[in-house]
Design a protein that fits this description.
three-stranded parallel sheet; 7 helices; 215 residues; mainly alpha; Ribosomal Protein L15, Chain: K, domain 2
Length: 215
């Protein structure tokens, strides 16, 4: 009986060994790890790309630092009034006191009411009616001439010749783009051919008597 009891124990031993057999298959994950090893190498090859990205980020930071260091441009919204230049408006009619109840107008009377028309002086004749009025009017069609006398022409043209507005401007006697009139103050003994905008009667007589002409 003892031998019969030992045999089942020996027979059970192979079953236990058979049950433990699948544990030997755990070596298979080592191959998977070996297969994953190239992936790790691939990740190491991509490291330089990250370094270039880091360089780009540092370059951007340096450029931003340069922008910050530039001097700011003065713009309209930077302007502010000087301290004390602006004062708040007095709000009257709020509360008690002279600026509250009566708002600085005092008690009853014309000046304490709503308003008065411009120029009202309490019923008196206002300043506009009392002021003296100037007579006449200003002619809007009045023409202003630059004046040149005969004595000036005798000085500018000692040998005679043609007198024109352009010539007088070049000699500095008159200003350009303005009308010119010759007056008869002084005498003239040379022959002048005067071509200007206007000539007085006495000047024309003296010019013609000296042998010249007026146009």
């Amino acid at each position: 009986m003892a031998d019969e009891k030992e045999t089942p124990k020996k027979a059970a031993a192979p079953k236990a060994a058979a049950a433990k057999a699948p544990a030997a298959k755990k070596a298979a994950p080592a191959k998977v790890a070996a297969d994953k090893a190239p992936a790790a190498k691939a990740s190491t090859t991509k490291a330089p790309a990250k370094s270039t990205a880091a360089k780009a980020s540092t370059a951007k930071k340096s450029s931003s630092d340069d922008v910050v260091s530039r001097p700011q441009v003065l713009k309209m919204h930077h302007l502010r009034p000087a301290a004390g230049a602006k004062k708040d408006r007095m709000r009257v009619g709020r509360g008690e006191g002279s600026k509250g109840k009566t708002a600085g107008r005092g008690t009853k009377g014309t000046k304490a009411r709503y308003n008065m028309r411009v120029g009202f002086e309490g019923g008196n004749i206002n300043f506009v009616m009392r002021a003296p009025k100037l007579r006449g009017f200003k002619n809007p069609f009045r023409v202003e001439y630059q004046v040149v006398n005969l004595e000036k022409l005798a000085e500018l043209y000692p040998k005679g010749g043609d007198v024109t507005i352009a010539d007088l401007v070049s000699k500095g006697a008159v200003r350009k783009n303005e009308k010119v009139k010759v007056l008869g103050q002084g005498d003239i003994t040379v022959k002048l051919n005067v071509v200007v905008d206007k000539v007085s009667g006495s000047a024309e007589q003296k010019i013609v008597a000296a042998g010249g002409s007026v146009q």
